[in-house]
């Protein structure tokens, strides 16, 4: 793609999310979502094969439907409150419709079906932008309307997302689909605590974005999109096998690593609000997630399958230079002792 | 009839939307879009927005739909699908018509309709002369405000249009 046009379109994706996050008028928020959607389509279609075109079409259709539902909720809110500022949503129907629309944009169950298919059909870099940057805008709107969200609907969607994200990822060998199901599960964790303490949603989003960025960059670095090719990283760059191990365990939420911080805080917040069965279920279902991360680490870092001698000197293209990879790896694994600094997020 | 003109026009609006949502060939979709554009213009004009209605006719129908019609005519097939040529299309069209007729009967018969918001049958659709702003027309002031207080909206819209063109060129360019 022409570099100038590519830069323009990428800046428009940024601009769309910025408009969504900084507007106080519902119509501008809708415009921001549409601008975001319009501009990310050519980024998803960077390579021209039928798979990317199908993935971009699926993404466009689901997100456009979600924008339409959002517009309907905005208009119902306008009819009942008479004003366009984004505070809380004044009508239960409008609140439910808006929650469903934003859940469709995020990829929460029961609207999660597009996430694995779209993530699988596009290149690794586009998948990175899809799973990290595109989650910022809907989550910021959910944060802003969090006092008026119907708790039953949101918690149902959150718990089902954690279940689907864990269960659906069990049979996958394609790395992009694994990351997609991991995204569904993490979105479930984020929205579960949204009504109780929205700051923890933002904390979870921050740490999730760091970990997903790290994982995707490690995949891009070793140019691997399947478990099989990831298991050859011991041959290309042996150091990244350790890094993949650490980052995957951090994504699974294991204690000394920073992925444990959001889960710990969320479970603590939920139990403070006298719901005990719910965080127990959520923690148990997060084990499913941990299982398929562990399977990735097993084939990548922990074992080396018997191979012939000429496989030990693998021919490869020049290694890609990934910016910011070391700081990201450090941040996604070592942030746990900084938990008392959470108070700055208020 | 004139008191209920907005209701009638909005029923025709919905029927024409059903007409192109049942997916005949784009040429016939464009035909029904012309009807819906004209009827939409009528609805806006009944609320006092004569300038906006003119905009709909000039820019939407006379600009965008003409270009759409030309491009569709270039890309059309030999026997385009009408509403009666394909069972699926006709079925969907009739289903939409049936739902609209049932909704209209429900609105006409009952005293109060409480679907998502309550409105009292056909009564709320009639145009009342509120008589507040006799000095200036509200919608002209709205359009003027778009270019003064709403400069940011104009910038965002203009940028979206530019990026829309770039995106479409990029997507259809191929390799």
Automatic annotation (TrEMBL), chain A:
All copies of domain NADH:quinone oxidoreductase/Mrp antiporter transmembrane, residue ranges: 23-285
GO cellular component: mitochondrial inner membrane
InterPro entries referenced in this protein's UniProt entry, alphabetically: Complex_I_Subunit_2, NADH_DH_su2_C, NADH_UbQ_OxRdtase_chain2, ND/Mrp_TM
UniProt topology in membrane: Multi-pass membrane protein
GO process annotations (BP): mitochondrial electron transport, NADH to ubiquinone
Start and end residues of each NADH dehydrogenase subunit 2 C-terminal domain: 290-342
Subcellular locations according to the entry: Mitochondrion inner membrane
Keywords per UniProt: Electron transport, Membrane, Mitochondrion, Mitochondrion inner membrane, NAD, Respiratory chain, Translocase, Transmembrane, Transmembrane helix, Transport, Ubiquinone
Pfam families referenced in this protein's UniProt entry, alphabetically: NADH_dehy_S2_C, Proton_antipo_M
Membrane-spanning residues: 26-45, 57-76, 96-115, 151-171, 202-220, 241-261, 276-294, 322-345
Main location, first listed in the record: mitochondrion
Catalytic reactions on record: a ubiquinone + NADH + 5 H(+)(in) = a ubiquinol + NAD(+) + 4 H(+)(out)
Keyword Cytoplasm (UniProt): no
Coiled-coil spans in chain: none
Self-association and partners: Core subunit of respiratory chain NADH dehydrogenase (Complex I) which is composed of 45 different subunits. Interacts with TMEM242.
Known function: Core subunit of the mitochondrial membrane respiratory chain NADH dehydrogenase (Complex I) which catalyzes electron transfer from NADH through the respiratory chain, using ubiquinone as an electron acceptor. Essential for the catalytic activity and assembly of complex I.
Name the record gives this protein: NADH-ubiquinone oxidoreductase chain 2
Organism for this UniProt entry: Equus sp. AV7
Automatic annotation (TrEMBL), chain B:
GO CC annotation terms, alphabetical: mitochondrial membrane
Protein name per UniProt: NADH-ubiquinone oxidoreductase chain 6
UniProt cross-references to Pfam families, sorted A to Z: Oxidored_q3 (PF00499)
Catalytic activity as recorded in UniProt: a ubiquinone + NADH + 5 H(+)(in) = a ubiquinol + NAD(+) + 4 H(+)(out)
Compartment(s) where it occurs, according to its Swiss-Prot or TrEMBL record: Mitochondrion membrane
Keyword Cell membrane: no
Membrane-topology descriptor: Multi-pass membrane protein
Class of this enzyme: translocase
Function: Core subunit of the mitochondrial membrane respiratory chain NADH dehydrogenase (Complex I) which catalyzes electron transfer from NADH through the respiratory chain, using ubiquinone as an electron acceptor. Essential for the catalytic activity and assembly of complex I.
Family: Belongs to the complex I subunit 6 family.
UniProt GO molecular function: NADH dehydrogenase (ubiquinone) activity
Biological classification of the source: Eukaryota, Metazoa, Chordata, Craniata, Vertebrata
EC code: 7.1.1.2
Source organism per UniProt: Equus caballus (Horse)
TM regions (residue ranges): 5-21, 27-44, 51-71, 83-108, 146-169
Keyword tRNA processing in annotation: no
């Amino acid at each position: 793609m022409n570099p100038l046009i590519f830069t323009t379109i990428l800046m428009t994706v940024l601009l769309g999310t910025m408009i969504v996050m900084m507007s106080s008028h519902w119509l501008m928020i809708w415009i921001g979502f549409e601008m975001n959607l319009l501009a990310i389509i050519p980024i998803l279609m960077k390579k021209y094969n039928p798979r990317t075109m199908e993935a971009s079409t699926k993404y466009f259709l689901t997100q456009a439907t979600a924008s339409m539902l959002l517009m309907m909720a905005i208009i119902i809110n306008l009819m009942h409150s008479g004003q366009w500022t984004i505070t809380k949503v004044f009508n239960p129907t409008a609140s439910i419709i808006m929650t469903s629309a934003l859940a469709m944009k995020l990829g929460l169950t029961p609207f999660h079906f597009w996430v694995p298919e779209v993530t699988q059909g596009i290149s690794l870099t586009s998948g990175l932008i899809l799973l990290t940057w595109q989650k910022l805008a809907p989550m910021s709107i959910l944060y802003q309307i969090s006092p008026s969200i119907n708790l039953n609907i949101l918690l149902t969607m959150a718990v089902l997302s954690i279940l689907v994200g864990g269960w659906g990822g069990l049979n996958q060998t394609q790395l992009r689909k694994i990351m997609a199901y991991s995204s569904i599960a993490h979105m479930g964790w984020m929205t579960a605590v949204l009504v109780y303490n929205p700051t923890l949603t933002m904390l979870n989003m921050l740490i999730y974005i760091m970990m997903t960025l790290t994982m995707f960059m490690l995949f891009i670095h070793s140019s691997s999109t399947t478990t099989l090719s990831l298991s050859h990283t011991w041959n290309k760059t042996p150091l990244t096998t350790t890094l993949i191990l650490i980052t995957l365990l951090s994504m699974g939420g294991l204690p000394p690593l920073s992925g444990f911080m959001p889960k710990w805080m969320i479970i603590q917040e939920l139990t403070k609000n006298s719901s005990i069965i719910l965080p127990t279920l959520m923690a148990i279902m997060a084990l499913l997630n941990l299982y398929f991360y562990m399977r990735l680490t097993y084939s990548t870092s922990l074992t080396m399958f018997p191979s012939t001698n000429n496989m030990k000197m693998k021919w490869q293209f020049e290694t890609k230079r990934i910016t910011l990879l070391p700081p990201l790896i450090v941040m996604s694994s070592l942030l746990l002792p900084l938990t008392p600094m959470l108070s700055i997020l208020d | 009839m004139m008191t209920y003109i907005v209701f009638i026009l909005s029923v025709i609006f919905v029927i024409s939307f059903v007409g192109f949502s049942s997916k005949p060939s784009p040429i016939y979709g464009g035909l029904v879009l012309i009807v819906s554009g004209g009827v939409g213009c009528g609805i806006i004009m009944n609320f006092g927005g004569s300038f906006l209605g003119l905009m709909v006719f000039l820019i939407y129908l006379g600009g965008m739909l003409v270009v759409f019609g030309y491009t569709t005519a270039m890309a059309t097939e030999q026997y385009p699908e009408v509403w009666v040529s394909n069972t699926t299309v006709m079925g969907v069209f009739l289903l939409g018509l049936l739902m609209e007729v049932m909704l209209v009967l429900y609105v006409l018969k009952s005293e109060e309709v409480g679907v998502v918001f309550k409105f009292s049958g056909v009564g709320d659709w009639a145009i009342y002369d509120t008589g507040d702003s006799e000095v200036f027309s509200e919608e002209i002031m709205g359009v003027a405000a778009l270019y003064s207080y709403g400069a940011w909206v104009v910038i965002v819209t203009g940028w979206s249009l530019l990026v829309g063109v770039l995106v479409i060129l990029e997507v259809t360019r191929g390799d």
